[in-house]
Each structure stands twice: as structure tokens, then as C-alpha cells.
Records
---
Amino acid sequence: MSRLRPSDWLPAIVLLMATVCLTLERGMSSGAFPRVPVWNIPYLSVRTAVYYVALPCVTLVLLGCNPLPYFGLGRWRAVIHLFGVGVLVMLALAGGLLTLPSARAYYTTGPGNNGLVSAFFLMLCTEFFFRGFLLLPLLPRFGWHAAFISAMPYALLHVGKPLAETLGSIP
């Protein structure tokens, strides 16, 4: 039996914590787990912020990593234009998705519907979680395959949403 090298611990712990965060967030959102009381802040899902940003940041700090580069803040000047284009594309896609009757029915009847501001906040949190916290620590160990590893839970997270969104989440 081979022993884990120190370089193997970071991806293993990140995958484990990602699984815990996604399981707790989905379970509480669906009502399968008891809900933890949270503040009611307009346009902000505190549960999303805790499970997609706060717990991953605490995990990175406990592992001795600076979480800022995982937000893309290590080289923010180099990527700010790309980020701006990405935000515009995401908002255009979200607006286009809402023209579909199935998406409109799903998102207008959901709890906490606060429009584009809350959608933007959710997109930022999920981008950090899947592209920052999950993808970046896996890159040194798995190379370009890390993109597919991080895409699997992202696609599974969309099961139960409108078909166009679910299929669109698969890379």
C-alpha cells in the first residue's frame, strides 16, 4: 500500500471539504436537513456565502494556503478585463435563460427570488467555489483533468433545474 505524499493531502482535503459543503448546502436548501437560522439580508444568501466562500476560505487557511489567489485576487489586474467580459456573458445567458418558460417558472417561484443582484452574487460564489477552491488545488496533481473533476459536481448541482440549464452546465 502506497503512502500519501504531502502533495496529495491538499487535493484530497479540498475534495472532501467540497463534498461536505455541497452536501450541507443542497440538503438544507431542499429541506432534507434541518435549516440553520440565518440572517435575512436582501439580495444575499448567507447559506451560499457560508458554504461556497467562508468554509472553503477557512479550509484553505487551515491548510496553510492564502485564499486570495483562489479568488483570482493574486493577479487581479491581469484578469479584470476577462472577469468583466465573463460577468457580462453570464448575465446575458441568465437573461436569455429566463426567456424559456420552464426557467421562468422555476426561478420566479423559488424562495428568495431577488432578481439579477442575487443571481450575480450566486454566480460569484459558485465561480469561486468551483473554479477557485475546487479547481486550482487540483491542477498541480491532476493537470488539465482537474477541469473535468471540478465540472462533475457542478453539473450534478444543476440536476432538477430546467433542462437547458442542466445540459448547459456540462462542459
Note: The radius of gyration is 17 Å.
---
Amino acid sequence: MKKLMLLLGVVLLTIPSPFAGKNNASPKKNKLIVEKISETRELAPGEAIKFMSDSICRSLGIPSQLVREIGQNESGWQCIRSLSGGTDYGDLQVVESTFNFWYDRLDLEGGKTRENYLIVGIHYLKYLHTRYGSWEKARFAYARGHWRNKTTWTCLEEKFMNKINWRKYDV
């Protein structure tokens, strides 16, 4: 039964959806992902959220391994509140103002759920990639609000940015 539910989830989650429309998103697709991931709860909780992340990435054309690396760096894939006293939350540590903006823009439902924070974070990363033209610049802007030249990075910024091999993503 578990394999059948997982297979059903994979089939339904990999149906392509265009990255187009008023909000550059498909709210129905996002809702389908959330509904189907809830049906795969027999997976370990950490694996279910990564499965959902991979599905969203596939639907938007984002390297899923990059999002996994960002989640590992941001929270260790633990849906947590900010450890630095900020308003960021979730596996990808989305700040509240960003969450609110993208939640409305994507026409999501259900409030501040782990799944919605993940959807918002991945869509925001896609937007930043479109804006800056590289995954490295998008990742830096994701963490710091906008891209800055490497010569201006702090030691902390160098540390989190150098954890990722950018040649795998920016060809």
C-alpha cells in the first residue's frame, strides 16, 4: 500500500505545470502537492518534506539538489524558528515579510504551514534566479535580500556560500 501511495504521489506530482500566469505560479498545482504529500505521511517526516521539495523543484525547473543543500544549510531540514532571533521560519528559513508577500502572490491557502513555507521558499528562489541569472547569486540574495559582489562578503557569508559547489548549478 505504501508503494502504491508513493507511486500515485509521484505520478500526480510530476505532471508538468507552466511557470506562467498572473502570479508566475499554479495555485492548484501547489494545493495538489500539499494534498498528495499528506497522503505519503508513511514516509519518515524528514523524507516526506524532501519528497515534496523535489516535486516542487521539478515542476518549476529548479535543481532539487540545490534546494536540498540550502535546506541543509539553513535548518538541517528541521522546520524551525530562527535561531538568531529573526522572523525566519521553516526548512528554508523564509522571513515573515517574504512569506506574507509570496503567500498572497501564489494564492496559497492554509496559513503558515511547513508545506506553505517550503512552497514560498522555492518560488522565491526561482524568482531570484530569474532576476539575477545564476543560482549562486540567487542563493546569496535569498539569504541576504539582494546580490552583492564577493569582495564585500563577510566571513559568515563566505562560509555559507562556499558550502555549495556552484559549478554543478551555474554552467
Note: The longest helix spans residues 114-132.
---
Amino acid sequence: MNALKIKTLCFDYEEAFKSEFLVDFKLETNDGVVLNAHKLILVIRSEVFKAMLTDDSKEVEKGFLTIPDFDSKTMKEVLRFMYCNKVENLDEIARDLILAAEKYQLDGLREICIESIIRTLSTENVVKSLMISQGLSKAEKLFKECAELIIRYEQNGEFLSFLKIISFKEI
């Protein structure tokens, strides 16, 4: 497939994401926002949605699924990734988005979230990032980067300063 056809295909999927044309499924997030989707996209991009939407469940019948674990900001970016293979404001939401990527088995999304988290590691977020890495599959690289940052502070004799800086309210 040449580059022009791929670009056109990506544009078409992005337009489908943005529009309500032929929407056949809705997702209600934990903050009460209802997001539009197409079952076909959900099923071909996520094995979890495939399992949920290919049985005779109430959700399939109603064309509606409640998502209790994630807010609309997170799920909108999950959907954007599923349609367009991109995410807006990744560095700001990667720590929330990675949990959704894990739940819905979106390996590509998980990978870009890990890269974003590593790129933005700091004393303020390393503990939360380390804890997140423990709950994920295939996140050894994130765990290693978090641990190395903490060890660097300890080796430089700055561990007490580090403990004063880290944000325990994020935990």
C-alpha cells in the first residue's frame, strides 16, 4: 500500500472517530460522559472488546457499555488510539492511559505510554510510576528506569532529599 493510500485511510478513520456517522455503540465513562464508537473498530483493535461484544450480552443488545474504571478524558484517548493510532496530550495522561491500555490489551498504546512515562520521570512521579509498573504486564523497562532513578539518588547521597521531594499524595 503506498503512502498516499495509508494517509487517506488514517484520515478516514480519524473522521469516523470524530463523527457520529453510523455509530452503533456507546461507552459511558465513570464521570457520566457517553462516547460514541463503532463495534467493528472496538472488536478489531482489542481482544477484550472482541470477547465482550461477540457474545449475546445485554451490552451487545443495547449497544451500550458502562466503563466504571476510567473517565472520559482517558477513554476518549483510548478510542482515538484505536481509530487513529495516536494520542493527544500523551505526557499529561500517560499514567492513567496505561492502565486502560493494559485492561483492553492495547499493546501499542501501552508501549507509547511507557515511553512517555520514562521520558517524563521525575522525583515527583517516580513512586507512582514504579507502583504502576508493578501492576502491568510487559513493563520491565518502566520498572527498571524507575528503580534506577531512585538508586541514583541513593548513590549520590541525596536519598533523604529525594524522600522530602517525592509526592506521597500521588500514591
Note: The first strand starts at residue 25 and ends at 28.
---
Amino acid sequence: METKTDKAFHECYRRRDVLRTYIASRTHNWDEAEDLTHDVFEKLWKNRESILPEAMEAWVYRTARNLVIDVVRTRMVREKAAAGCCDMSETSPETPERNLAFQELRDLHMRLINVLPPKRRAVYCLSFFEGRDTVHIARAMSVAASTVKRQLLTARKTIRTALAESYQKYG
């Protein structure tokens, strides 16, 4: 026998295409909207017993809104960091020396990535180059999110330390 909670869940799930369109209109990325829609329903499924059936639809849209805000905020931080890291023209004119230094830094970064253990390297690359969050990486690699966080933390620390040592050594 289907309970009120089950009926409310199935009704929300039946209208998932509308939710996906809502999310896509805010993220401007259909694939990301698909992932976030999945995340919303995964959270709903885990919390369905603690949500009033009458409030379930509002909960779904509030959760979607919060996930979109997180994604957009993360995207803005990454774009700001990339602009600050790669746009050298704001701080000083582009020179052959600066271009060479930037290329050497990029090459060192790639060498450091390549010496990471394979799984740690995969986690780092998915995060750094593809902008994936820990939940998506964990799902893609079939591991716990806490494992991804730990691997990412270790990879970043290893690379940051090696870059700092190189900078101190070579200026």
C-alpha cells in the first residue's frame, strides 16, 4: 500500500523534467542540470520520511535552488581564480620573460600531476581541469565522497608544497 509520502515523492519525480528545465535555466548547462536534478532526488529519497508530503514539492525546489547557488558560486570562484592566475596583463605588461616563466610554471604543474598516484591524479584532474565537485567525482569513480576529499586534499597539498619549494629554490 502506497503512503502519502510515497505518493508525494512519485508526484514530484513524475515532474522531474520541469525541475530539470528550471535548473538548466539557471545554470545554462543541460548536463549540469541533469546531474543536479539527480542530486535533488537522491537527497529527497534519503530524507523523504522526515518531509511532510504537503511540503515535498517546495522542499524539492528549495533544494534545487540551493544546489544551483552552490554550483554558480563555485563556478564564479574558479573563474576568478583562473582570471587572476592566467591574466597577467592587469598587473604588468606581457613580456617574453613572463611568458616563459608562466610556461615553466604550467609545465612544472603538469609534471607534478603526473607523479601523483593514479587514483589521486584522476581525482585531482577531474576537480582541477573539469571543475567536478567531490560528489560527482565519487560517483564517477565509485568511491566514497570522503575518500575523494582526502585524495584531493593530499594532491593539492603535495602540489602546493612542491610549487612553493620550486619557487623558493629558483625564485
Note: The first helix runs from residue 4 to 14.
